[in-house]
Structure formats: C-alpha cells, structure tokens
Amino acid sequence: MERLMELARKISDKVEIYSIDEKTDLIWFENSKLKEIDTKIQSGVSLRIIKDGKLGFAYTKDLIDREEILQNALHSLTGGVEGVFDLPHTLVSTELNTYDPSIVSLLNTEIVNECRRVNDILTSKTSGQINLYAERNIYNIRIMNSYGTDLQAMSSIYLFEPEILYPASYSAIHRLLIEKKFKKASDEYLNFLLNTYNQSIKEVNPGKGRMKVLFLPEVIYVLMWRLLSATNGKSVYQKESPILEKMGERIFNKKLTVYDDPLNDKIPDARGFDDEGVPCQFFSIIESGVLKNFYYDLYYAKKMNTKPTGHGFKTAMWAGEIVSTKPTPSLEHLYIKCGNKSFSELVSHIDRGIIIGGALGAHSGNIPNGDFSIGLSPGIYVENGEIVGHVKDAMIAGNIYNTMKNVVDIEDTLHPTFVGTFPAILFDDVSVLIKG
Fold first, then answer.
1. pLDDT tens-digit series, residues 14-61
2. pTM for the complete prediction?
3. How many domains does the chain have?
4. Residue 245 to residue 216: CA distance in whole angstroms
5. Which of 151, 177, 197 is the last residue of a domain?
C-alpha cells in the first residue's frame, strides 16, 4: 500500500487507499440436515483520488499491477464526479476490544456440533422444520491517505441463527446471536423460539382493523430504514427529507431514543473510525422523541458546510462487495434505548393485536416519506394478553411519523440484529389487513 500511495501522490492532489482482508466460514443446516459448509478468503484494495476538483475511484482484488488500478482511477475522472472535500488527518483512533484470538482456533467441527446440539433440542420440543445458520468472520481493514492518516482495525464475529418454520410456509420464528467469540446458545435464548412458535402454531383469522402491533427486534429495521433515509446527509442536501425543518422538535413518542454507538465494543464490529478515516463517536439521532442530528460523510458534510460525523461507510446492503463501493452516509452501529417491560409484559398489554416476527417487502412504500406497507412473515395473533395463533396473508401499513408517536411500551432487553441492536416495541392504532 505504501508503494501505491507513493505512485498515486505523483498523479493526483489527494489520495485515499482502503484495504480489507477477510476470512469467512459459513455453515447451513436445512430441515435439520447439514447442507453446506463454505469457506471464503478474500482481500481487496480500493483507491480514491482527487485531481483538479474531480473524484476518481478504482478497486482491485489483486494488487500486483499498481499501474492498472492507478490508470483506472485516472480514467474514472472523466465521469466528472465532484471531489470537493478534504481528507481527514487522523493519527490516533480510540482503542477498542474488537478481536478475540480464540476464534482463530475455532474449528468448523465445533460449530457443526453446536448446530446439531441446538437442532436436537428444538426438534425434541416442536414439530416445525428447523434451519440453522452459523458464521465465523475475521477481517482486518487499513485506511491510508495523503494527509498522513494510517489506521487499522481488526474484528472477530461469530453469528448463530436458528429458525423454526411454520407448516407449508417460509415464515419462521428466528433470533440472532452475535458474539466476538464462539458461544453456545443459552436455554433462555432457545426457549424464546420454542415458546413463541409452539403457542402460535394454530392458524387463525381474526379479521382486519386498527390494533396494537408488537414489532420484534428483528423487524425494527422496517421503521429504521425510513428514519435513516430522513436523517441521511444526502437526503438533507437534496432536500428530500420530510423532517428537514424539524431539528429540535419532538417527532416521535418521548419513550423513543435512537442513537449510533460505534464505540461500544461489547458488541462485535465496533469501530473507532469510519471507512474514510474520520473518528467515530457516540451520536444521538432521536432523544426522548426529539430530533437531534443528521449524519454525514466527508462529501455531504462539505456540501452542507458542516463537519463530518464519522458516518462515511462502505455498505453492500444487497450482497455487493465492500471493496467495490464508495463511502456514503451510513449508520452502521444503530441502537434504540430499551424500556422497562419484559417481552411477556408487552404481550400481556395487548388486548387484540399482532406480533410481527418477519417482514415481506420491507423496501416497498415511499421510504423517503416514511411510508411502509409490509407483509407479515409471520404475524402472530394475540388476544387478551395471550398468543393464540398465527395469521396468513396479512399485512400492515402506515407512516413512521404517525406510528412512532403511538408507542405503548418498549422491551427492557436489547437484541442484536443484522441492522442494529434493538428491543421489541409495542405500538397502538396500526392498520392491519388480513385476507379473507
């Protein structure tokens, strides 16, 4: 990378180099049988240059020919993409505990045995089909720029996610376990899956209407996508945000606090700096329902004449490769502050309503405007505080700026998901439609 930096500085005004080395082991059980074990080892380098106010970008998975990636970056300057921002001069990053060395010696055999152990427990106590997914991931990133920044971060991640499918359906109860090292699934963790599934195995059709809806942590991203769009520096710059003029105003229920905390290294994948080398920080989005901040990368901070907030990340939401993407404003370490009610207490407060365990079409609706319309996969029906069954062909619809004002209560426990760390949240007066 040092040689690439030396060459790039000769042909451009500003240079940024990002590299990643990653190893991933994936294990998949389908219908209680081992279906796949896959190991991937990959690395890559991406290069951003700024010359005469224009931005060039190129990447490679094999840094043998440095001249080739340089020429590709130079050629991309013809696209005329504006490069008006400065690169950060970050010499020191917050020290975080993001890597557990024990994960290196973890054998795939141990993960497979854990999958089989969990599968045996679940199959002995329920009739639903059992699928299991497990992953071990180790990655190391390095960011250098022509201003002297040279930062590295190494992380270890262990993922485990069993699911129990409803009959003749792809709907399932599931919950994610995320750690920095291998950890066996606890009885409490498995009992949540079993109890929720077994109590809801009966198919029911309670009819449509406005009712209480309990979003499980795994489905909170449906709401968060809309909020992240509205508070994104890009949306602010393009004047697409419906809350552009709402800074300092209460836009949600006062029970809701949403924040980004990349420095919390109790959770895997914590970061002291973003993918542009800007230091990360604890960052409030919503405090007690009040809008506090928008978030920016280098580019949109410059366009809005404000400071970058440490949220310039390479994202690959739709299964793209990180190294091939350019940083954009992104909240990668999102949290919602927990409340003081247990999950069972939340359920007991539902006179008539639905628990949402999964969503179909989460990307549908007018996301910038806050609208959502999703299929329930599954939707679990609750009556008089008790789970009585699951519903098919059901959906809910609404707008987050109405729905998130009607918070009844929030769970007292945070759960990791692929999008953030959230509690379950109970809302009132949500439109539910059930076919037939």
1. 999 999 999 999 999 999 999 999 999 989 999 999 999 999 999 999
2. 0.95
3. 2
4. 31
5. 197
